[in-house]
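explain this:

___
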Amino acid sequence: METLLENTRLLIRLYYRPLAAMSGIMDEGGLLYAAIAAAVVSFLLQFALMAPLYRSLAEAMAQRARASQPAAKASPAPSASPATESADNQTDETDGDEAEDPGAVPAAPSGTTVPLTGMLASGRYGWMMSFLSPFSLLNTLATLALLYVPGTILALILLEPMGSFGVVLRRDYGSLLVCTLMAWAAAQLPLLVAGLVVWKLTWGLLASAGLQAASLLYFAALMACALRTVFGVGFGKATGTVCLSWLSVLLSPFLLFLASPFLLYYAWAYFRGDVGDIRWAFLSGRDFRRHLESATINPRDAEAHYQLGLIHQRRRQITEAVARFKRAVEIDPKEADAHFQLGRIAREQGRLSDAIGHFSAVVAVDENHARGDVWREIGATYSAAGMFDEAREALERFVGRRPHDPEGLYYFGEVLSKLGRHEQAREAFTSCIESAKTMPYYRRREVGRWRRLAQKQMAGLKDIRG
């Protein structure tokens, strides 16, 4: 019961704190709860929206039938036999009975064909059509789980270098799936409430389409929050990923092949290992988070706070990450990793003096921390503060140890250019470009930013003689 209430609170929190809710769903959200919530909301939504539409269709067909009846009666008829007159009288009596029943579908005139959907779509019996919706619900859940979530991961990899598709799928599929199902339920729930409120009214097609479009837009916004939380990407790339991921839904007609038990058996036999890896990654990630939370009870365990800070940092929850890193430093002032991350966050936020203080604490503990990356960060911080001589000294030390790092070479060339050493700056930018080109394939997109910036700087220096 407590788990049910917690999942319900997470679902409601999506409306006013979507980023925090997505983080909570990753850690505590139940996959079964999310699937049931998405299925129930979709089922009730079809019942609420389709019944009024069927009722309006029945009324339109009834009006058409009544309009065509006078024309049929006005046509000249041949001499009628007594048997025919008797049949007409019975027909008139039957018409009278049907007229007394407002819920019945009017009889079609002679020579008119009434479709089967029209026969079923009366105000009394139209709601029965919605009970066919479980089949469409299975299709909805299968589309989200088998097409949309993998398609979203693939689209994100195309926009952001994160590793191979197989690795990312096994690692993050479970977390993204539970977030997607909860987002779908949250996006459809307001539309369901609107449908239940106007249950007695007839929905126009335009109004229904507009509300459903608004629901899909809200779902897209929640998915952008999910991608930012699960993968730590910016809102720009998350929005682009959501726009591309809809293309995967076009493959939903092919899900009908899954109705074959033979295909299901062979698919399970082939992907059983991958399903096991996905389940293991999903559960182990949650267990690791719970273990860290339990470890923080120990007042001397700085490492647990540092690891939790890294989790928050990856999810772009900077405030929570800073709090964890600061707690780690309070427990152990010589925690170099926490100082290093606090320095990087301070530099990104423009608090340059704080950044230098944290980096100095790192150097005091280990001047080769993070393979010497601390000197690159110190040089970039001094450069941002306009202290180019100090930046040059720090970057010279870094480049001497890491001569093939494109980011450090770019910062070094930029500082040399600011100091007027244009020839040395060209050499640094040239080394940056060459290093980026010779990087392993999986890292070329990651370092491509520094190659492009170096090329831009080279274009500005081509007419300058150092």
